[in-house]
Amino acid sequence: MNRCISSSRRITAAFFATTVIALSGSVFAQTVDQILQADQRRLNLAQQSQERINKIVEGTRSLEDQYRAINKEIDGLKVYNRLMRAQVEGQSAVLEDIGLSMDQVDVINRQIFPLMERMIDGIDQSVKLDIPFLMDERNERIAALKEIMERSDVSVAEKFRKVMEAYQIENDYGTTIENYTQSLTIDGSTRSFNMLRIGRIGLYFQSDDTKITGRWDNEARNWVIDDSARNEVRKGLRVARQLIAPELIIVPVPAAEAT
């Protein structure tokens, strides 16, 4: 009897212990799951926090880059503004000079027109007193100058340029040698001659067959026959035509006037 009761107690104790162990295991499993879930939540929270930090860092870097770019642009604008101020100041000075010049335009025009007319008259008088070479061309140039002076559609600067151009052409005649053909009336007979101009000091003519040679006598204002320099005039014509190299020629020239 006692043995049966003892066995029964042992079975009950064993069952109770097994139940406790089972319950403890269940509780432990639930605790581990809770711990793992908590760790996962902490990990998720940590990842979310890191993502927020990364976004904040990226935003900060972007703002810093923008700040640097804006500062660089501001520095460039400062340099540009300094240059523009200098340019504006220079333009203001130019405008002041233009204003002063415009105030003097009327005065200049009143002075320059009489000057140009005197210059044209001077060219006209010089051509009339000069040896008579290229008279048609030179007289046409003078007539064109007088005509352009009366035109309102031509600026004062252009008129003055034309006058100075004519003076330059007349000046160049004094340092060049030239040949051309011209009809002359000699002893009542008109025929074409080869003309030789040597600067402004001598103007000579010669027929194609070289039988007639002469020169312009500026003192008598007439053409005269002078065969003494036939070969020299022929040589001068060849030099002017660039058929031979330049060389010394001996031709009669008018004596220098006493001062």
Structural overview:
The protein is of the alpha+beta class. The chain has 2 domains: 71-173, no CATH class; 175-254, no CATH class. It is 66% helix and 13% strand. It is built from 4 helices and 5 strands. The chain has a 5-stranded antiparallel beta sheet with strand order 1-2-3-4-5, with helices on one face. α1 crosses α2 and α2 (135-149) runs antiparallel to α3. It is elongated and about 150 Å long. The termini are far apart. The model has no long low-confidence stretch (mean pLDDT 82).
Q: Helix and strand succession?
A: HHHEEEEEH
- What is the C-alpha radius of gyration, as a whole number of Å? 58 Å
Largest sheet descriptor: 5 strands, antiparallel
Sheet/helix structural class: alpha+beta
Can you tell me the overall shape?
A: elongated
Share of helix, binned: 55-70%
Number of helices: 4
Proportion in β-strands: 5-15%
**Residue ranges: pLDDT <50 for 5 or more in a row?**
none
Topology:
Layout: H1 2-129, H2 135-149, H3 156-173, E1 177-186, E2 189-198, E3 202-206, E4 213-217, E5 222-225, H4 230-240
Antiparallel strand pairs: 1-2, 2-3, 3-4, 4-5
